[in-house]
Amino acid sequence: MFDLANFTVSDMVVCSSELRQVTADSATTEDAARAIVQHLRTTFRDPHTGQPQLVLVRLFQTMAWRNLTPDLEQRALRRQPDLVPHPDLRCLTLLATIGDQPEWCDRTRSRQHQVVAFPNANAVRRAPMISAMLDQLGVTPEDIVAGPLPTDNEWDRHDIHHIPDALTSAAVPDKEFIRASGIKSVIGYAGKLPDGELFTVLMFTRVHVPARIAELFRTVAVSTRLALLPLDTAPTFAGGPSQHTPTTHVAAARLDALEQLLAAHEGTTAQQALVAEDARDRVRSQQEQLAHKQRRLDQETRIVETLYSVGQKLTRELNLERLVQAATDAATSVIAAEHGIFRYVDYDTGGVADTRYAVTSPDPTLIDRLPRPRPTLAARSRPQTTTAQPVTVRRGDLTEDPAAAGRLLPYRISTDGQPPVRSLLTIPVTTATGEDLGAFSFCHTRADVFTERDEQLALGIAAQAATAIENARLFRSVRDTAVELQRSLLPQVPPDLDELNIAFRYLPGAKGQQVGGDWFDVIPLSAGRIALVVGDVMGRGLQAAAVMGQLRAAVRAYAVMDLPPGQVMRHLNRLVTGLGGEDQIITCVYAVYDPGDATVHWSNAGHLPPALIGADGKVELLEDDLGVPLGLDGTTFDDAVVGFDTGDQLLLYTDGLVESHDASLTDRLQELTKQIDSTTGGAYNVADVADLVTKTMLTGQEPDDVALLLVRARHSIERTAGLDLPPTPRSAREARDFVRATLGRWELTDHNDTTCSVVTELVSNAAEHARTPMELRLRHHPGRLIVEVVDHDGRLPKEIASPGHDERHRGLCIVAGLTADWGVRPTDTGKIVWAEIRDR
């Protein structure tokens, strides 16, 4: 089975070979003809549906009237009533037919084509399809009418009658038959039999057959002749007389047919060789074109990849100087310029516009020949303002117009002895809103280097650079605002306190350049106490910095109220809840160092545990009562207390110091304690310890910010004394006696009167209102004397303004007038009323 639409030379050889074998068992010429048309119809089929591709196949043969059967004679007379028959009258007889319709498969049912008599040449011409085919095959109507071709005639024409489009061809008169049957093309061929008669085969195809495939049927035509030659002596029809063709004629005809078959094969081979050569030439040409297109495609792909890479790099770059240099390098490389200069406008923190340059050139001295300012902070100037709209300029040879060269290229690119600049491409860099950001200038010492394509590429990079510059400016503005905000919110230098050595460090994260929400603080409190705070607002940017600032201010406000750490945390949690803190993770640790009793009281809201480093080098993580992060309504926070003697250190820090993707938090905390332990000793001050801890614990590539606060208790030079008193009226006298004796020992007798007056009022108030046992404490630190009265009543005294005639309720007013400051500090068992007297 072969596909007629894709018939090949190899298919032709197989088909011809099979065709020569199909008549081996035929008894009559009619049987052989029927076998041939049957083989042709069944051989060519649609490869997908199996449907025959030949709608109709017919085989005709010329013969004399005398050889017709009686029924054929009657058929001819009915078809041609004016016919005058005679024995030598030439006729074209249908020997075999097969097709889609049942009536097409029986020659006797054909009304028009069973037999056609040709009494003269005009009768042949009146059959247009037969006439056109015979003409194409080289047989004239006169040859048909004259009788059988001479046996010695060397007619060996096996041309193919090909009608590529049957519907539009004049050689096919029955258009309705063509249209109704779905016929697309017609193929016909003929051959000479040994007795001089001609056979003709007509094939009506269901597919369009091109000329190159039709030409392959030359060999099929010769094979059909070879298939019919053995039947030359057999009867034409069953029951008819045998033919009397001499055996020599049959042998000669067979030899002639074989020679024709060989010639047809040679012709087909030669033609296919030409076709193959032509195909090779076309393939070679197509390969060259494909290679050229592939090179162009590779080049375009590299350019697209470069532009994409440039765009990605510029989009990620937020440093303006690195950004413009990357844009200049990329554009200069893409368009193969020798020199690339990017003049751009920048703004300083005061909003003043400055002109700067980025240069890509093999000449390192080119930057020195550009107009000032240099691209450094030390050499900047105001740019010249202009109202001219920037335009793109592309010149092939500046040497042809020196005046224009000086106007278009104000830079001195070439020095003496170097080739002058000839090619120039200037590309403006503007934002989407039309703001002029600067311009690229690309130069080359060869003429006509830059093309329109280079211009488009440079414009693409200029557009990407403009967008990236806007992003970098916006980022820098936001970053500077956030940094300035954070700088204003965090301590800049450690406070100078007699009780503690203090060091702190703040290290921004390496990922991005936005500020974070880490904060720390050191807050001096009453009676020489000191509050230490470290907190962390998760997130980055202005919002985190703003929340951090609010919390730091709130902690300071709660701290000066002398509230215990747990109460400070509860107030802070209430504030965070009101700010919508449930959407944020906020942690904090608040500790108060009291040098009077050498303790640290602290409360923790979900923060990492502080590290207590003893003077002996022992490290302890204060992991008790860590609490939950701030922002959960109704949460309570407990106080904890630990001793903090001279030489002890306390380290508060944020999670950036210990968090790592490569180790667990437990392992990192253990490593922290190990590093702290290795830094203890008299050779290190707190600043050295802070530096060593950050150096050993951090790599510099941490994604989160790091805040660290380290304090060390100094040797106390404070003097203290205390006296327990009952809640009786005599307590005030005992208190005054104790004060005079103590101040006498301390050589502070200048404070006797003031201190006695203050003690009298505070002890009398405690005895009258608290009515609990009390303790009087005196604490002296160079520069101040502190008086404290401790009782076990939780009610807090208030200063009341008394009318002029009322001499009661004036005790606290007197205390306020005699001291530098006074206040009340709640405790778990009551309160402490304190007053501070400064040295004169």
Name the descriptors:
840 residues, alpha+beta, elongated
Can you put this structure into words, describing what you see?
Helices cover 37% and strands 22% of the residues. It has 840 residues and is an alpha+beta fold. It has a 6-stranded antiparallel sheet with strand order 3-2-1-6-5-4, sandwiched between helices. A 5-stranded antiparallel sheet has the order 8-7-11-10-9. A 5-stranded antiparallel sheet has the order 12-21-20-17-18, covered by helices on one side.
Task: Give the gist of this structure.
With 840 residues, the chain is an alpha+beta fold. The protein is built from 20 helices and 26 strands.
Ranges where pLDDT stays below 50 over 5 or more residues in a row are: 374-387
SS element count, helices: 20
Largest pleated sheet = 6 strands, antiparallel
Alpha-beta classification: alpha+beta
As laid out across the biggest beta sheet, the strand order is: 3-2-1-6-5-4
**Shape assignment:** elongated
Average pLDDT works out at: 83
Q: What is the percentage of strand-forming residues?
A: 15-25%
Q: Helix share of residues?
A: 25-40%
| Cα separation of the termini | 126 Å
Using DSSP, what is the number of strands?
26
State the oligomer. single chain
Radius of gyration: 57 Å
